[in-house]
Amino acid sequence: MFIQGLAPILWLIVALSVLKLPAWKACPVALIIAFMIAWQSFDMPLQDVLTGTIEGAAMAVWPILGVIVSAIFAYNLTVQTGGMEKIKDMLSSVSTDKRMLILIIGWGFGAFLECMSGFGTAVAIGASMLVTVGVTPVNAVIACLVSNAAMSSFGSVGLPLTTLAKLTNFDPLQIATYTTVQLGAMVILMPFIMLVAFGGFKCLKGMIPACLIGGFGFCIPSVIGAATMGADLAGIAGAVFAMASLVVYAKKFPIKDPEYEIDDYNENFSITPGEAVKAWLPFILIFIFLMLSSKMFPPIQSVLASVKTSVMIYTGKDAAPLTFQWLTAPGTLIFISAIIAGFVNKATVGDMLNVLNRTFKTLIPTFITIITIIATARIMGYSGMTMAVANATVSATGDFYPFISPLIGSIGAFITGSATSSCVLLSKLQVDSAVAIGANEAVQAWIAAANAAGSCVGKIISPQSIAIGAAAVGAFGVESQIMKFAVKVYLPFIIIMGCVVYFGQAFL
Fold first, then answer.
1. How far is CA 141 from CA 130, 150, 437, 461, in A?
2. Half-sphere exposure for 135 (CA within 13 Å, toward CB)
3. Mean pLDDT by 10 residues, the chain (508 residues)
4. How many helices, marked H, and strands, marked E, lie in the chain?
5. Which of 149, 151, 105, 108 is CA-nearest to residue 126?
6. With helix as H, strand as E and coil as C, how does 152-213 read?
7. What is the Cα gyration radius of the chain?
């Protein structure tokens, strides 16, 4: 059953890495493989397989595709109104070095977007902005992809970690603290990886202090925040501190290297405060709306969250209604922000409809990819295919299991494209396995946290995440190229994470 359960994953690895198929062609085949194996080998009733597929498709459309469409629409509309050119000039006033802007935008601002909203927002918006300042589309996607992975456990105001704590009945502060500690090495090293992704190791020349400021600037506040405030605010605190630190460093110690200078920047650029606000307005509104609708403002959040629709789609065992949150969904808030900013910047209704139509047309391959990969994940989860893979791994490792626990979490994120979904899917298995090897309660929580930390690493190679990034910059058909680099990052980090978890349990 292990090989059958692993078959869709193996196909995706071969299709994307060896055959170099675009994701929109590879993922439907993975869905067909999962469908047939669930039905024939795992004895899942045909009706359940069908309704599980439909439920997965519905989950893909909302909220995930809602976020992607809204984020790219917001970016395209900002380009249409001329705001993105002004943003480029403003960023150039902070630094004209592309490497520094990769850290400020992809790491600092991207971390903030991920911690506030999740669902690929940081990759979509961050990669688009980096392309604006002259980073090639593929390099922009890779940089934001690896950056986003380091923050995934803090996505949507800490949702993966609060969900994990709730499902395992461990103290949320304990889970948040353990996860941030386990992610420490990854967070500190990731700014370096982003620059290497951009242009090789030569890009690190003169940038080591900035990378250290970015890494430690996020790591230290997030660990302190996790231990004192929990997952809800820890990531946001780290993101704000890292972004502010990088901006201050860039202004105090300007980096000048002709090889990495922004092309065609305006040296005599000047802008009034009002014009600056108008240019940044979509992102300012996104920040305000996401903040107001988050758990940091319970009265507002509860009112908005009450606008929802619950639909029973799946017909199998332990079926639960699928709930669509309409007003608290990041896609809704981003779309509203874009519309308001568009009107303020004198875009007509016709302009916005044209931009939206163009956005939809360019995203058709992404729609196919996301819908089929999420449907595949639901079938694998419901049929027991994912659990079969995980159980086989547990049986084969015994007391060595803590080393493997991040790998289990990464498999969940690879399949689902979501750290939250990975925690929902595999948290019980992680804790049960910890109990089986005789771990004390603290080590059980440590291994549960490893699922969230491992999920972050798994996001690096998730076809869903890669598809979001490629769609954001219009670089369709390059998924295999992105995956090739992503695997090189994934393998060492999953080994490092395994060592941290295995040897770290001795201190608990």
1. 9, 15, 40, 12
2. 31
3. 84 79 85 95 94 90 80 84 81 84 89 73 81 84 86 78 81 91 92 89 92 94 86 82 92 87 70 88 82 79 88 88 85 90 94 93 83 85 81 81 91 78 75 83 94 91 81 75 87 94 91
4. 25, 2
5. 105
6. HHHHHHHHHHHHHHHHHCCCHHHHHHHHHHHCHHHHHHHHHHHHHHHHCHHHHCCCHHHHHH
7. 22
Q: What is the pTM of this model?
A: 0.74
Residues in the chain: 508
Q: Which helix (H) or strand (E) holds 452?
A: helix 441-459
- DSSP H helical ranges for 172-322: 172-182, 184-199, 208-228, 231-252, 273-292, 298-305
Contact 286, 114 (CB under 8 A): no
Please tell me whether residue 324 adopts helix, strand or coil conformation. Answer: strand
End-to-end Cα separation, the chain, in angstroms: 35
Strands (DSSP E) along 354-417, which ranges?
A: none
Cα 87 to chain centroid distance, Å, stands at 24
Sequence-separated (6 or more) residues with CB below 8 Å from residue 427? 164, 167, 168, 448, 451
At 160, phi and psi to the nearest 5? -60, -40
Alpha helix ranges (H) inside 17-107: 23-40, 46-59, 66-80, 83-94, 98-101
Residue 329, both tokens? 């969904």
**Residue among 138, 103, 109 nearest 122 (CA):** 109
Domain ranges of the chain: 2-263+271-305+323-507
Amino acid at 501: V
H/E element, 357: helix 349-362
Beta bridge partners of 358: none
Report residue 281 as tokens: 């307005």
